[in-house]
Amino acid sequence: MDFDFSLLALYAAVAVIAGFIDAMAGGGGLITLPALLLGHLSPIQALATNKMQGTFGALTASLTLLSKRKIDIETIRLPFFASLIGSACGTLLVQSIEPAALDFIIPFVLGLIALYFLFAPQAGSITREPRMDHAAYTRFIVPVIGFYDGFFGPGTGSFFALSGVALRGWDLVRSTAAAKVMNLASNIASLIVFIWGGKIVWVLGLSMICGQLTGAYLGSLVVVRGGAKIIRPLIVVICLVMLARYGWQKGYFTF
Known about the structure:
Blueprint: H1 5-25, H2 29-38, H3 43-67, H4 73-94, H5 106-119, H6 134-151, H7 156-168, H8 172-197, H9 202-226, H10 228-249
Helix pairs in contact: 1-2, 1-3, 1-9, 2-3, 3-8, 3-9, 4-6, 4-8, 5-10, 6-7, 6-8, 7-8
């Protein structure tokens, strides 16, 4: 495939916006994945290339939050590997199964996340008693979300952030920071499988990495400075926009 410089610059700009949003609330794939599909990539090429650029955004956000002491390495170490394994399994499966199989599940889950943060305004404002212990969370919840990220992807950061708040009792800043690390793990595993399968459009992926590095760095700084008051409404908006996109794709309504 041939792409001229202006198109590559446009994809880089799209990645800046996506990286910024993804660092704060997840859902950056809502922007990048449709953009890649508009470039006449096959669905599997779009998923693979999206994973490549998203990996560097997650890495940048994770390193920035780590430097700001928002990530506890001991707490996140085992979930990192659990997410890695789940994502690898999901990525292997998606290369043989049509991702549209998730179309009925994803809108339902996104709706629940939006409603949770919309009608539970104190969710994530302070640390609370966990509803699930760390071992169970690591063994059952994290691999499932990682699997989803390997299989499809958009919204994974929101799913990780919600699970940390709702199940582990973390405040929203801590949960968002942990979500970046778990998302990084799922991206790495998925990226390796996609490289092995030869599915990545490298010229697009490399141009978008430049944008992701910038956007993710700026977004992670906003997480540190703005805290839950910015993250919570952003998660709600991102989830509702993703729901609207799915409804539009399926022809449930038109704009």
